[in-house]
């Protein structure tokens, strides 16, 4: 039923609880389904009876299972207190941003998750995090009070020094630490925009950003991506039609397309920003996954018209939620003020942990290992997709994503619903569009796309699609006279 590993840092009880919750959320285990007995589960998974007892008890307490006397454990039905028998009809997923957030963060324990947006546990630097926590503990944890409004000073200094390697000249006073890059995006948007403003975004792009901008009342307009950056003709046409206040973009290893903007495109974008007077918000959260030194909008502009965002969630830990932004001084003061009004300081403890990880002597070796593994995963997954007949939008050989489509899988939303029913979290393309519409494009996280069960599922669906097309063709053929 589940794949358990005693070698992981996650306790076996938690692995069982998380795994069963994922299967129930994905409807692999349906309401009313009976689970294996405690002893049978223990034998089949090679764990102790006591481990299974504790896991089942937790799931009962959390409302996922019900225990029936002399019968065993069953998946709880909605509204079931242990005796109900009515089955709640399953509601088809709505493929919008709210669905995406629910699927990603509530169903992250699905057995297969090639559509997710993070790295596997064993790709992250858990050992460095533990060492940093131990050092903090030995130094004496400071649990009272708050951090500084701009964030932990030592980490800000370290970030400012690191930016010099990327040809961005800043001091610590131009660095603001945030609760991940999502808070950074929100602060910038709320400071720079008002209801009714036109905002440009990448198309396809980040669905949570699109949703957040709409909540602020902005008019969101997509700029088509190409493998080398932007459709500049389309961009110039949009600029002639609208007067945007800002362009939120990911030039490097863009999600979901994996595309990389060329230096020529960056120079042209900066000239257009000057000509049409809009701000560029450069989200560079995948920079640490890129082994190639590249120019950025911020390095070419030196924060005159660019706000630069980064994050440690992809390489250290998504749970620590530490990001940062760089901006010219007068803008940064506004961002700090809004940060304090909206939620006071970010976590000084998390920022100190990140500082300890970055100053650990093995940090650069860890980054190189992750980059190498991603490069190899890109080669393997790319060839596998092509062997099944997928078209690849771009092959970056770095970062986390491949953007691909198949001629016999025209609706990635329908495919994703089928995948969810089989415990597979996919990344349907319409989620990443400014105006969701049916599309065959899918986002594949290469670090989670090497399981043969994924390829069997896709091959079966491709074959079904071909048969359906042949059947429709035969039905439309009239017999000859």
Secondary structure elements and pairings:
Elements: H1 12-25, H2 38-45, H3 49-61, E1 65-68, E2 72-75, H4 97-106, H5 126-139, H6 153-163, E3 175-178, H7 180-192, E4 198-203, H8 207-215, E5 219-226, E6 229-230, H9 232-241, E7 246-249, H10 263-276, E8 279-283, H11 297-301, E9 306-311, E10 323-326, H12 329-343, H13 348-358, H14 363-387, E11 391-392, E12 401-405, H15 412-421, E13 427-428, E14 442-445, H16 452-475
Outline the structure in words.
- The protein is an alpha/beta fold.
- It has three domains: 12-91, Winged helix-like DNA-binding domain superfamily/Winged helix DNA-binding domain (Arc Repressor Mutant, subunit A); 94-123 and 362-462, Aspartate Aminotransferase, domain 1 (Alpha-Beta Complex), CATH 3.90.1150; 126-358, Type I PLP-dependent aspartate aminotransferase-like (Major domain) (Aspartate Aminotransferase, domain 2), CATH 3.40.640.
- It has helices spanning 12-25, 38-45, 49-61, 97-106, 126-139, 153-163, 180-192, 207-215, 232-241, 263-276, 297-301, 329-343, 348-358, 363-387, 412-421, 452-475; strands at residues 65-68, 72-75, 175-178, 198-203, 219-226, 229-230, 246-249, 279-283, 306-311, 323-326, 391-392, 401-405, 427-428, 442-445.
- Helix 7 (180-192) packs across helix 12.
- It is globular and about 75 Å long.
